[in-house]
Structure formats: structure tokens, C-alpha cells
Amino acid sequence: MSYDVIVRNGLWFDGTGAPPQVRTLGIRDGVVVAVSATPLDETDCPDVINAGGKWVLPGFVDVHTHYDAEVLLDPGLRESVRHGVTTVLLGMCSLSTVYSDTEDAADLFSRVEAVPRQFVVGALEQHKTWSGPAEYVKAIDELPLGPNIASLLGHSDLRASVLGLDRATTRGVTPTDAELETMAAKLDEALEAGMLGLSGMDAAIDKLDGDRFRSRALPSTFATWRERRRLIKVLRKRGRMLQSAPNVAKVHEALNFFLESSGLFGRRRDVRMSLLVSADAKSSPGAVRVLGPGVRLLNRILGSKVRFQHLPVPFELYSDGIDLPVFEEFGAGTAALHLKDQFERNKLLADPEYRRRFRKSFDRRVLGPTLWHRDFHDARIVECPDKTLIGKSFGQIADERGIHPLDAFLDVLVDNGERNVRWTTIVANDRPKFLDKLAKEPSVHMGFSDAGAHLRNMAFYNYPVKLLKRVRDAQLAGRPFMTTEHAVHRLTAEVADWFGVSAGTLRQGDRADFVVIDPAGLNETVEAYHEESVPFYGGLSRMVNRSDDAVIATAVNGAVVFRNGQFRDGYGESVKSGRYLRAGSEKLDHTPV
Fold it and tell me: Which residue ranges does the record assign to the Amidohydrolase domain (predicted)?
């Protein structure tokens, strides 16, 4: 038997959670055809990877990205694949580009995900050839994809296409019965085309871009539960899933997700749900103790299938001035972000009456969790024209000047030019004890990288590698909190199964999506800060990660596309390795060799 690729003598993890074994893998026609404890015949094999001392894992599955525009401009999605990610999901948080026209899609997407609007418009104007889901799936599949792609239909996209963006974002407007049935039919059409399910967003923090309806909340936030139930009924019939984010200002409404997920103990089909987000938030440090047990209890009592997404790394954010989504929590913050002109924004930030209103909302006690801890003593300046301020927190500056921390923040921005001041803070997952606990929590699954979004604010492209580093470091220190095979399972098959995508395992008969990891390379470099200029975004410098010491090779559909820090020639341009994975499209043969 001849092979296209042989991966020799690696410590093989199959993705199921089973203990690893030293094995040699034989790959032919994009499929794992041999998993052998003895050497394979390497005659005429053009690519033999010596994986001795390395780990061979299924490619990671990133279930929460916002690559919807980027995939059109750079189908290789290099910033994920270089970290061993071989399958990415699009269409999260109610946002997709399936039904909406270019202008609506850009207004829905750009401000929410902090991707410059002109590039979203340009990507869609140049590449959007579809007007519905079947055409969309075909168009994405015809791109020279690097990783495999699967996607959900966004509720905001769907709602805007039926009601129009104006009506869809006007309070008090509800769809007629006919419009609701049209929405249900369009969702069913998307599921028939192979999309995995529906994504929503209940939290009104996310705002529209553009000039027509700027700063209105996303369409899905205006939906009633009558509308949501009608759409969930379609998911239930098809056996598909829902991704969404409950409104943290109305925590009690989260119960509706559990009720709608429930199969009523066999009386109807249950609906798998993936909600945002489970984290050890600084704004509510006690919540981490109760969320997991509470979710497990409700699932058990109601017979629901609800999990919360968890990013298993410290949630570190950066901001240029006030350009950070957390400021949308304040009316005054939204007012500033509403202004695109820098002069007008600086003028507003200096206005005494504006500051009075901002301080009032900033100091107001809030019941329930918030995105930001609101502690300017925990917000450190890293770039500023006034070099004497670099390294200081805004709180420290306020103490030195004897003023309110918010005034110190706004003073520094106005005095130095708002976008010239770059600062950082960690909003969640800063306590290792609870981060380790969440990594094992059965009511969560790994996700929420937001890859492709918030280009200047954060970079979690390599969160799977970072989790493996934490697991290994704990084992070496004699305080293990989970096995490596459990971590691998959580990053691969577990999330793939929940979302209903055929990925995440590396057994005989499986598609040959894999990553080779050097455990010795799981070092401090995977956690270092990096920026990289993005040609297709006009040279914008985006935050990225680098795991080149750890990720030796990444393969998609049997093709080794990244090796030793370099992508293969033609990758994402003339060479296509990935494909669109339609829901339920693959039946795999796991007959042992």
C-alpha cells in the first residue's frame, strides 16, 4: 500500500479522549488509511514527517470566529491555520452575509466586530455573488480555502433581509405572521443547504455601523421570544443547533434558552445550544462559582442541552483610545463611538457636561455581570506621545492629579490625541485556580476566540496551543488539573460534535486534518504579544499570535499546508486544501486496519 503522507512514530491522540499511543499514520487521498504500531512502507511516499517525540493531534476546531469578510480576501485564514486550527465556523453572534445586501451586511458587521467598514464593503462588492444560502455555500466552497469552513445563519442577517434594516432595528416593530413564516422558511432553506444552525444575539451592547442607522442595536436584539421560538422550532425539526448570547442585563431571561432547548423528557426533540460566555470576570468574581453548577442543574431538571462557551486563557484586551466594545455598555461611551470624525469626538470627550453624564453612568452600581470591571487602576498605558505616562495606570494618574479616574482617562486621550493612546487590561480569567476549574467544567465548551474580529483589541487565535501549554506546565509542576488527552478532546471532537460538524477526530477512516505539536515548544513564545501588517486591510497592524516553536506542521484534508513556520507555495491562492463542511454530509468509516 502506498501513501501520500506518513507521520512516523508520533504520540497519537485520536480526539476522543482516549489515552495517547505511539503510532505511525498513513494518509492517502486526504484520509487516514492506517494507524499502525509498526513501521509503514515508506517506498514512493513523497512526504514523511518524523514525529518522534512530538504529539500528533486532530486539527483544532474553532467554533467562534468572525472571518465572514476575511475569508473572501484571504481564503487561507493564515492566522488560525498556523496554530493548528483546521476547521473554523462562521456566522456567529447573529452576523452572516447570506441574505443581506452589501451595505446592510457591512453595517451589521463592521462596528460590532471592529473591522474597518471600507474593507468589509470592498470584500463583499468584489466577491459576493450569492443571494441565498445554497449559492453562498457554493461560493465559499469554490474559494481556495486553507481550513475547512462550516457556518451558521445569523438572525440579524435573516431579520434584516425580511423586515428591512430600518424596521428590523426599530423598537416596537414586530414581524407580521407572514413575515415570521418567511423568516422560518429562509432559515429552513439555509439548513437544507448544509448550514449548521442559527446564531443570535440578545445583548443590546452591539451597535450598527454606517450612516443610515448608526448606533442602533443589532436586529436580533429586537426579536421577541415569540419570534425566537418560531425559529427554534425549525432547528428542532431539523436537529440543528443555536448559538446566542443572553442579555446580561436581564439574567432571568436566560431561563428561556433552557426551556426552549429542553426535549420535555422525550415529548419533543431537544435543541443543542451554545451560549456566551462562561468566564471568571473581574466585574463579578463570584459568578464563576455558581454558573457551572447552575447550568448543570438546569440541564438536569429541564432535560436541556445548554453549554456556555469558554475561552481558556486570560482575557486580555488592548485599546487605541476609546475604541473598545466595552464602552458600548455606557450611553456616553456609545455617544463617543457614534462620532467617526476624530475632531468631533475629541471635542465631545472634553465637554464638561458630557463628562458629568459619563461619570454618573460610570459610577452607577450595576446588578449582574458586566463586560468590564470599570477599574482604571487596572488599565495600563502601553503607548502614548507623552512618554512619561507609559507604564502608568489611568487610576495612578488620577491619584497623582487628584481627579476622578474617568477624567484622568479622558484628559490623557484629549491631550495626546485619542487614538494615539494605547492601553491594556485583563477583564476575565486572571485567576489560575478558577481558569483551571473552568477548563474541566462539563457545562462549558472551548470557544469564543473571535478570530478575525477586534483586530486591534485582542488576539486569541492560538488559544488551543495556550491551553495545552497550561496543561503541560501544570503536569511538569506536579499539580495536574486535567490530562492532555482530555484537553485535546475538548479542543476537537467535543465542540465539533456539539455543533454538528464532521471534524475533530483522527482515526482510521477520518479526514486527515491534523497538527503536529512539539511539547518542548510550548513555551513563553506562545503567550507573547505580536502585531502583523495586513495587506488586504490596507496595511492595518493587527494583533496576532505566534506558535512556531510548538506547531511543527498543520495538514488539512491530507495536505501539509504549514510546516516549520512557513506556508506551502500557493497556499490560499492557487492551492485549495479546505472545503465547506455541510451539516451531516460525511459518514466516516472507522473499520480498523
Answer: 47-189
SS3 133: helix
* Residue 591 burial by Cβ neighbours in a 10 Å radius (0-12, 13-18, 19+): exposed
The count of structural domains within the chain is: 3
Q: What is the CA radius of gyration of the chain?
A: 24
In tens, the pLDDT along 62-111 reads 999 999 999 999 999 999 999 999 999 999 999 999 999 999 999 999 99
Same domain, 250 and 330: no
Dihedral sign for Cα atoms in the order 31, 32, 34, 39: positive
Smallest Cα–Cα separation from 152: which of 259, 65, 261?
Answer: 65
Co-location of 306 and 434 in the same domain: yes
Question: CA–CA distance from 317 to each of 7, 53, 409, 415, 486 (Å)?
Answer: 38, 35, 16, 23, 28
Least confident stretch, 245-254, 543-552, 555-564: 245-254
Rounded to whole angstroms, the Cα distance separating 320 from 456 reads 8
Does 400 reside within a domain?
A: yes
Helices and strands (H and E) in the chain: how many: 20, 23
- Is there a single domain that holds both residue 437 and residue 308? yes
In Å, what is the CA distance from 527 to each residue of 114, 157, 420, 467?
23, 35, 25, 11
CB-based burial label for 161 (10 Å; 0-12, 13-18, 19+) = buried
Q: Are residues 289 and 437 in the same domain?
A: yes
Residue-number span of the structural domain to which 412 is assigned: 318-426
Q: Residue 450 pLDDT > 80, yes or no?
A: yes
Residues 349, 419: one domain? Answer: yes
| Helices assigned H by DSSP within 402-524 | 405-416, 432-440, 463-476, 484-491, 493-499
On whether the pTM is more than 0.70, the answer is yes
Structural domain contains residue 493: no
